[in-house]
Every structure is written in structure tokens, then in C-alpha cells.
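Entry 12.
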Amino acid sequence: MDCGLFQGLKSLRERNWTDLPVEAASIHAVVLTHAHLDHTGYLPRLVAQGFRGRIFCTPGTADLCRLVLPDAARLQEEDAREANRQGYSRHAPALPLFTEVDAFRALTQLQPVGFDRPVPVARGMEVSFSPTGHLLGAAAITMVLPDRRRIVFGGDLGRYDRPVLRDPDSVPAADVLLVESTYGDRTHEADDHGAHFGELVRDTIARHGKVIIPAFAIGRVEEILYWLKHLEESHQIPVVPVFVDSPMAVEALGYYGRRVSELDDDMREAGKPLASFATRRFQTVSSAQQSVELVASKTPAVIISASGMATGGRVLHHLKRVLPDPRNTVLFAGYQAAGTRGRALVEGAREVKIHGQFVPVSAKVERLDAMSAHADCAEILRWLRGFSSPPSMTYIVHGEPPAMQALQREIGHELGPAWKTRAPEYLEAVEI
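Predicted 3D structure (C-alpha cells):
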């Protein structure tokens, strides 16, 4: 279940180069919760190592995988070429983690399956998908074993009562449960209907600055645009140019228009979901030359660009330009993993290294957790209360150690001793 890349700290990223503890060719099937790279990004490498089985996922996840996997491969190959050209790699020659050929081969093994439709994945085992509202196509996986016991893997849980995507569906039963803990140690700030976001945009434009929003190309861009349109139509922000400088994000927007059934009720009733994202001066940036011109422009604007943790991509060129100037604002609207440039900025770094140069930070740096696509502690507990009875064991995964431990404590406090929990160690094996 899932086959993602480690992100953040170098010690974690280095694990991506380690082969799995089992032979790739011995794996019968892979089942995906959603398309983010920390859940799918190892697939090309797995295929290169000999995996030939099917990769089961929802249709929405399959759509987005066709965007993110080849793009990730191109970045890997570009990074390797640059390392060889500049000579800064410890390896000679520097190699990509995987190639575009590996990525396209992985895509041929995708097997889309609709929500709530049990499908056999191995002898005597079947899985079904339940929406989690985290991303288009995102799902919790229920795996039924030959003895009819159920393993439920929650994947990444989305939010309740948020725009764009539906709320997470409840899962009624599990014998063994794996639940994420990204925000297991905090509660998101209360929904202010975009008021703080609007204030940041107004103040920055009044200073004749730019608002740069590093955003995950699939998932975050949509809600950011939704709120910008809402704020503009309610006259809480002026009509200003709004750019999406990410070809992948632009392409991903189209999938939201094609999968209306997965969207929030309000957007489905509107009939034209893509219209909910377009402000009056909305523009997309396709070519590299257009992006260069936008970086050089001094016109006040809101610019949304990938990547979400400022680890690579076009947003780095924007950051190099705007960070030294106090008129500008850099706004993070998603999780920032330890060891990333985004984490350093939100924690108050006075300079960051970009493209080999140290860039001073004078711009205003803000984070809006209210826009996070991850459930907070209270929302995770709300989802857990949907089970008819406690699983025999709940494994707390997908979080930094403090968040995992905090969620473990909260489950014990709020749901009682019947909920047995464990935060497993790296490479720990469990037999059930």
C-alpha cells in the first residue's frame, strides 16, 4: 500500500536510494491512496528493479500520476545533468533516482478502480477505496484478507467542511488500522473564510509588492484560487493579476472539471467548477520564457508556483527575486517537512541557499495552516470515531515523531484504553 519517496531531511532522502527489503519482482501488486510523490514517487524505481504487477488506484489518482511521475523523472534527470556539469556530486557520474522511461513504464501498469468497488488484487485478497477528501482521487484503502479480517490504510486524511473537495467518508470497520499523523500534534486555526489571507494580500499590494505562494502543483493550487476568487468577489482584496506559474498545476486544474462527482456540493451545484477558480485577471504561465519575464516584472501580483516546500521548481526563481525586499510576502499554505527550504523560512531563517547562493530574507514570511489539506488532530479523531468498534491495533504512521506521539496520547485520552496504538519504527515488521 503506497510506494512513495522520502522527503525533507537529507538522512531521510538518502533512503530513496536504498532497495526495498524484499525483491521488487516478488511483489504481486501495489495499491495507492493518492498521487502525491511521498505516496507514489518510488514507483518508477520499483519498476526499474523488476516489479511487473498491477498498480491499483482510483481514476483520479491515475490521472494525476500521469502528470507527477514523468515530471519527477525529468527533474531527477535535470538534477543529475546539472550535478555533472557543475561537478558538485560525490558520485561520478551523478545518476538520477529514476528516468522518464521508468516513469512511463510505471504508468502502463496503473489499474484504475472506482470508489467503493471491491476488486481482487492477489489470491484471496481484495481491496476497495473510500474518499478521504485530501486530493482528487485520494482514498482510504480497505483490504480484506482470505480469513475476512480487514486492514484499513487511511492514507492522507482530508479536512471537513472545506471548499473544493468532499469531506472524508467514514470507514465502518477495521481489524488493523494505519492512520496518518502529519498534524497529530496541533489543531488548525479556525476558519475565518479567508479573512487573514485577504489581509496579507491587501497589505502586500498596498506596499507595491508581490505575494509569492509556493504551492503543491496538485491539491493546494485549487483551494488557493478558490479563496482568491471569493475574496475578490466580496471586495476584500483589489483586482490584481493572479498567475499560476506551473504547467503541471494548470493541467491538474482541468481534471477537477472532469471529475465533478468528487467535488464539494457547492461546486457540483455550480455546474462549472473551473469558473470557481478564475479571478478577473487570472493568467497561466506555460513557457519558461514567460516565467522568466514574470520573475523580472515589478508589477504587484499574486503568483502561485511549485514546489510547495520550496525544494525546487520555478518558485525558487521567484523567491530569489522577492525574498530580499520587505515589500513582498511569501505565503506557505501547506505542510513544510523538516529539512526543507520552506520549513527554514517559516521558522524564521534570515537567509536561505538557492541555486548555490545565499539569499537574505527581508520579505514577510507567513504560513496559513487553515488551508492545509491534511486533517488536524481533532479531525483525525473525528474520522476515527466513525469506526463501529476499535481496531485490535492502530498503527500511527506518516508523521514526525512528536506528531505521532501526540496523536497517540490524544487517541488514548479521547477514545479510551480500548484503542490500542503503536508508532512503529523504520523497517519494523508486523505479522497479523
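Annotation: Residues 168 and 272 are 23 Å apart (CA to CA). The chain has three domains: 1-112, 123-188+394-432, 195-371.
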